[in-house]
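Hi all, long-time lurker, first post. I run a small reading group and we've been trying to get comfortable going from sequence to structure in the token notation. Rather than ask abstract questions, I figured I'd post a concrete chain and ask someone more experienced to write out its structure so we can walk through it together at our next meeting. Sequence below, copied exactly:
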Amino acid sequence: MKSPLIQQANDALAHSSGEGLLMGTMTVIFLVFFVGWAVWAWLPANKDRMEAAARMPLDDGLPNGGEA
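-- Answer (accepted) --
Happy to help. Here is the structure in token form:
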């Protein structure tokens, strides 16, 4: 004999199967976009742009790298 709590959980899962499909689909879509973004970021063609972005916080805005 099932407890009422387990029966309520089973009923809730049965009613939310459409929501589960939507959430699973969204997860797959976000994962595909994330992997695509990561691949784009690691492409050799983007190396100079990424290195410049990595140096940006250290750049003080002076010409010649801040040397007088």
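A couple of things your group might point at:
Residues 4-60 form one domain.
The chain has one domain: 4-60.
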